[in-house]
TrEMBL record:
<keyword id="KW-1133">Transmembrane helix</keyword>
<keyword id="KW-0812">Transmembrane</keyword>
<protein>
    <recommendedName>
        <fullName>Alpha/beta hydrolase</fullName>
    </recommendedName>
</protein>
<dbReference type="InterPro" id="IPR010315">
    <property type="entry name" value="DUF915_hydro-like"/>
</dbReference>
<keyword id="KW-0472">Membrane</keyword>
<dbReference type="InterPro" id="IPR029058">
    <property type="entry name" value="AB_hydrolase_fold"/>
</dbReference>
<dbReference type="Pfam" id="PF06028">
    <property type="entry name" value="DUF915"/>
</dbReference>
<feature type="transmembrane region" description="Helical">
    <location>
        <begin position="12"/>
        <end position="30"/>
    </location>
</feature>
Length: 282
């Protein structure tokens, strides 16, 4: 019996060690490559506004590795900063964005498997404040995939300080659930009529009732329809509810739909990546 217990203990320790190694690998940031100044593209606008990349539930370096590598290979953008947030909320920054064009900031939450996105929302607020106060970032573009986009929406809605001090030029939400109280069994008009919502959406709606950003925001609501009006992870109708929280006084929003691809392809598929590049750097 003791041998069996010892063997089980060894197996459990082995599993834990493997899990920790895998987690460490998934947190290795994407490599940085500077823009090739002699090969700047005529179809890309090079600008001083950095882009913050926020991943969703369970997201890791995998989420944006393909995008970062593709943009650096095609000389569209350059990753120049990595931000790690520990499970206790400590923020560690490496790199810089000052004086650099089309910079990408890779945000990595060291533990991103929580049941809600409340911690990530608070950490996103903290990260944006640090970027402003310590790195002089007054303007940002944001790309948020899945819950990463939801976290940003809540961060913006909850922080008056961010609304007043940081200008968001382009916000690209990819497969982002805004109202998880609906499924792909109902249409957007039907969900509106029947008032199908969840608590987080109602909270978000309240946050945006008196939202006062310091400048107008151009948003892109990017979705994928693999089949049955869903990307297999997020029903399109959940993302369509973005329209209900925005105010045309300070926002414009364009919906972009991709057909025949799944949720993860929104940050992997070359045609999506090129479309997102056009949104960011037109």
């Amino acid at each position: 019996m003791k041998k069996i217990g010892k063997r089980i203990g060894q197996i459990l320790i082995g599993i834990i060690v493997i899990a920790l190694v895998v987690q460490m690998i998934l947190l290795v940031p994407s490599p940085q490559k500077t823009l090739r100044q002699g090969q700047l593209r005529n179809d890309i606008h090079y600008q001083n506004v950095p882009t913050l990349l926020i991943n969703g539930f369970g997201g890791s370096n995998y989420t944006y590795n393909k995008m970062i590598n593709y943009y650096q290979k095609e000389n569209i953008a350059q990753k120049t900063m990595t931000i790690h947030v520990t499970p206790t909320g400590s923020v560690h920054v490496s790199g810089s964005v000052k004086g650099k064009k089309n910079t990408l900031i890779q945000l990595l939450f060291d533990w991103n498997l929580t049941q809600t996105y409340n911690s990530q929302t608070n950490w996103t607020i903290k990260v944006i404040k640090i970027l402003h106060n310590k790195y002089g970032v007054n303007e940002l573009n944001v790309v948020g995939h899945s819950w990463g986009g939801t976290e940003f929406l809540h961060a913006l809605g909850q922080s008056k300080w961010i609304q007043q001090n940081v200008k968001f030029n382009k916000v690209i939400l990819m497969g982002t659930p805004v109202n998880e109280g609906v499924t792909n069994k109902v249409t957007y008009p039907q969900a509106l009529r029947e008032h199908l919502t969840d608590a987080e959406y109602r909270k978000l709606k309240r946050e945006y009732q008196d939202l006062t950003p310091c400048s107008s925001i151009k948003l892109y609501n990017v979705m994928a329809d693999y089949r049955d009006n869903t990307d297999t992870s997020v029903p399109n109708v959940q993302s369509e509810f973005l329209a209900t929280i925005l105010n045309p006084k300070w926002s414009s929003c364009k919906t972009v739909m991709f057909y025949g691809i799944k949720h993860s392809a929104l940050h992997q598929d070359p045609k999506v990546l090129m479309k997102v590049a056009r949104m960011l750097y037109d």
